[in-house]
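Internal tracking record. Fields below are filled automatically when a chain is submitted to the structure queue. Please do not edit lines marked as system-generated. If the sequence contains nonstandard residues, flag them in the REMARKS field before resubmitting.
Queue: standard
Priority: normal
Entity type: single polypeptide chain
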Amino acid sequence: GDLIAQAGFGTGDLRLHALKFGVILIKLLEWKDAPPAADPLADKLAGFRYLTFWVKDMEAAVDHLKAAGVELVCDILARVPERKLVFLKDPDGNLIELNWIDPAAA
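SYSTEM-GENERATED OUTPUT FOLLOWS
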């Protein structure tokens, strides 16, 4: 088949889908015969490796994820009242951060 399927996720050796949000572009890739995922943090290199999504309602987002069976890495963190964050892992173990800032404080 084609190396990359051109439309949507497709059926080639590499499936690709691009999500565009204004000037932000996120590319989702999946190899047809990929080996099992390794722990993305196993190499313990310096720096941060996670994808951040901003949410309008942290509690609703967390409730939705829990109802879908997603396990959170931590409880909602609120070091200051106008900001909340929480971490979870995707099925391959990649770290994802959900972030909320009170609109009145922005």
